[in-house]
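Posting for a labmate who doesn't have an account.
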Amino acid sequence: MRSWSIPVGRLFGIEIRIHWTFLFLLVFVWGAEAATQDATAALRGLALVGIIFGSVVLHELGHALVARGSGIPAKGIILLPIGGITILDEAHAIPDPINAWKRDIRVAVAGPLVNLFIAGLSALILLSVMPNVSLTAKPLLHSSALLRSIVWANLLLGLFNLLPAYPMDGGRVLRAIFSRRDDMVRATHRAVRIGHVFSVLMIMVGMLISSRAETRWDGYWLMMVGFFLFAGAQLEERSATFQSVLQSVRLEEVMLTDFVTLSPADTLEDALDKAVHTLQDDFPVVRGVDMAGVISRQRILDALRTDGNGYVQAAMNRIYDVAGKQESLASAFRKLAARNLSIILVVDEQHLVGIVTLQNLMHSMSLLAESRKLRREALDA
């Protein structure tokens, strides 16, 4: 997500990013305005995009701030044409296994409630300032009625997100309720199946609506929303399954046990010579039996280029993390993400017995999956 989006600023310490698919919204607005010959249509269209953009940002800020208050820091918000995604920092979340489902519901409903509050407040202000305005006049959401669009953009965004169509907020509430009795993977599967029904219905209704010239763009929009919902549900389901696999794998099953270590007293040239004869990119630095730090192949090269031949001790990173060999791979991933590391040192009774690096992880996981499959086939035979 981050590699396909651009940063546009920060609010309350939370990074705001726009995904490139947000351009679909611009295309939609342009298509809707293309039939008019008004010279100011383009400017009104951009203003409408700004209203929708602001409504989505406030919606996601509702999620992020409630999540932060519930013990889950928010790392960023990514805006998509049908809404946004709040990226939560699960690695630093305060564990609450008993009330986790209640916390998930609070976080999920926060966004729609923000939009419904804004819709109600803006309607009251608009009616008090312009008592003769009709909030129900058609079109409800259009660049020709920007003030009325503030009300309807937030009302529709809030109500739409409350649909029990995963991964919409209503679907997340549904998954949280399912998770009271099922594990998270099974709860996600159940919520995704319901979400798929809504996605297919949206696409079919959108196709019917788009066959009429006067509602063509509404139909296109509904079809696009249905498509993104279906794709989003698929990605969320795969993510939940992947997380379940990570929980079941122990570090001793995937850690490297044949690895090279360096000493703080090694010169950088000696360290580079050792690095040439191994496929490792990251190296533990050990003083006797004590761990002193870690250093990467790239760091060795950079230090040699800038400072010449020195000692590993001066160039190594003293910030590292360790894990027990019985810990889950999910735990290791959280530690890697928490400190932006590329290597975890695996210890047993305070002795270094292996390493887990991002470099070897996918290869090890693939081999482990194949090994488990062969063992199952042998048992079935």
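Reply:
Got it, the structure tokens are right above this. The chain is about 55% helix and 15% strand.
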